[in-house]
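S.,

As promised, the adenosine-5'-diphosphate run. Input:
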Amino acid sequence: PESVPRRADVRLPPDTTRDEFDIAIAALKRDIGDDNVVLNNQPLVDGWYLEHPNTHDAFHVVDQEDLVCSAVAYPGSTGEVQVVVRWANKYAIPIYPISMGRNVGYGGTAPRVPGSIVVDLGKRMNKILNIDAENASCVVEPGVSYFALYEEVQRRKLPLWIDTPDLGGGSVLGNAIDRGVGYTPMGDHFACHCGMEIVLPNGEILRTGMGAMPGKNGADNPTWQSFQPAYGPYSDGIFSQSNFGIVCQMGFWLMHETGHQSYMITFPSEEDFPDIVEAIRPLAQKRILGNIPQLRHVVQELNVTGLPKSHWYAGSSPIPRDIIQKHAAQLPCGDCSWVFYGTQYGDETSIETQLDIIRSAFANIPGSRFFLPSDLPDDHYIHSRALVCSGVPILRELDWLNWKPNAAHLFFSPITPTRGADAKIVHDINIRLHKKYGFDLFPTLCVAGREMHYITNIIYDRSSNDEKRRVAGLMRELIAETAREGYGEYRTHVLFADQVAGTYNWNNNALMRFNETIKDALDPNGILAPGRNGIWPKNYRGKGWEL
Ligand code: ADP
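Predicted complex:
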């Protein structure tokens, strides 16, 4: 989309006059360099995934100019991050740290409080600080993308894998902080991190885990990337999905390369869905399934071809079931309702044994069909799944955005037990509400042994105010209805953070009161990412900021 003239000049931070702002910005430029502070006063450009803006949410759900920063700061080191944090305290201006800002569908680079200063760590802090081949671990700065880490491992010819999410352009550190996931056996990114270096809201530097103990003669501790909890409370968790600190370095475990075999299983009937979940549960609990597999509704087979919706259906309403069926019948998956993508790991014989068990578990569902990549055409989506599931970053998932003109997307991602009955409750709510608000329903279930992420990718036209209003209405009602049934979201777009946080309200909001206690202790001036994940510092609470 081309840029349109800005209606407003710089969006100032709350309770800040233009004069105060200009004085503060001049001071920041003196502190970290003229070129490293850039005002956000030019036309907003949504760009695309690889040329994404750090000025606003490129996938705007509200007016494009609503969720904007006043300026972007580019610190070049942990020391400069400390300088920025102290500056924010001095001038009482909120700052919003991002790593690379490719958190598409969850708010991108947009600060929750308009007029905040975005602290874009990725531009200058983009070093792979260490790859320890013996320990199978690495330490990265915020600006290291999955592509960069992957390429470095290849360049050094190490027999190691990284783990990438669906899109490989994001920050390894940023994704893990937001508790994103990937698809190798080490797909739980936060669970596979080991050690952090954090600048606290008062400007102090903290190292977590074994990093809290100095190494010999001032060296980093030799077990910083080896043992996660160290001694005392395990503090790392509170720095994920929060606004308690700015993470400047983070360690990650890497996987040893191994044999792998992806496969696809199709199931004929819509009603098979609870039975499929029941079949997956024991396979996952026994760890026969090597990674987190995906169960997708067949409509996604149309979408992942990369062809637009108009290719399949001329209407503007959601694609009717019979049309999906008619087209699916012409695709390699055939006339089916659900498609399962799995990958097994190990040597050839062990993979064969695993596949035998899996085939016989699903054979109980009449009409299920099993495919290997070699059974499917070269351009079939399974080949890109096979790459992601073996730690190779790709961009194919961008094809989602071909679905509609000016497409943007939001994720709705509740957690349910891995049980057919629960999955059906959430699925039925989604069917009903997507229909009510007029959107295609694209469910993908990431199924683990005890819980599943039921993820829907809601695609809307961001040039249409009507679609934006409807998509926000859909999100709000989905969050409320699933919460009434006891299902909560694991992650959400910044705009819905208050509502989602508010559903975790057991015992008179005990959890949020706990979070607020930590927030007020660490960040008494409330300068760091106010409102992120629904956590507001005391100077913002009760003033109408919550949405
Ligand atoms: P990615 O490029 O991986 O998609 P982002 O940089 O967009 O990730 O990060 C996702 C979110 O996580 C950001 O919006 C921000 O709120 C938070 N975040 C990212 N990096 C940091 C960091 N280094 N310290 C604190 N919070 C961060």
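The chain has three domains: 18-120, 128-256, 260-389+414-490. The domain at 18-120 is CATH 3.30.43.10 (Uridine Diphospho-n-acetylenolpyruvylglucosamine Reductase; domain 2).

- D.
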